[in-house]
Amino acid sequence: MNALKLFRSGMDYISIASHLNTTEAEVERQIHRLRRIERIQPYLSKRAKREAKREAQRVAAQREAERLAARSIASVPKPPRVKQTPEQKKALKQAYNKRMRAQLAEIREAHRV
After folding, report:
1. How crowded is residue 3: how many other Cβ atoms within 10 Å of its Cβ?
2. Which of 62, 68, 89, 99 has CA 20 to 30 A from 26's CA?
3. HSE value, Cβ hemisphere, 13 Å, CA-based, for 41
4. Cα dihedral 86→91→97→103 (10° resolution)
5. Count of CB atoms within 10 A of residue 29's CB?
6. SS3 82
7. How many C-beta atoms lie closer than 10 Å to residue 52's C-beta?
8. Residue (of 82, 85, 36) closest to 56 by Cα position
């Protein structure tokens, strides 16, 4: 069952999160996303409905993969800190900013349903 069905069956966010093994914030995002899809579905063609469903499944799978990756990264011990040169700091900052811009673009694209 998805988060919205569990919510409609009378469960609260905390119990849904423990049932789905995720966070309350993720449960809330899923419920709002599914409600938004339900609101717009009467206006969509069959093909658009299939595409919206696939996109929702893709986003859910991506979030699950990110959650699992974060869990595995958290268990790895951090290496000792090494003094960085200004050039290395600049390169790392540019790489970080590039990743953040890419993630922001993905989020914006994912919310265009």
Report:
1. 24
2. 99
3. 14
4. -150
5. 16
6. coil
7. 16
8. 36
Where exactly are the structural domains of the chain? 3-84
| Contact criterion met (CB below 8 Å) for 37 and 56 | yes
| CA–CA separation, 62 and 68 (whole Å) | 10
Closest by CA to 34, choosing from 3, 1, 55, 59, is 3
pLDDT tens for 21-42 read 989 999 999 999 888 888 877 7
Task: Compute the residue count for the chain.
Answer: 113
Whether residue 78 is predicted with pLDDT greater than 60 in this model: the reply is yes
Please report which residue ranges of the chain form alpha helices under DSSP H.
3-8, 13-20, 24-40, 46-74, 86-110
Tokens representing 82?
A: 């090494």
User: What is the rounded distance in angstroms from the CA atom of residue 88 to the CA atom of residue 112?
Assistant: 37
Name the pTM for this structure.
0.41
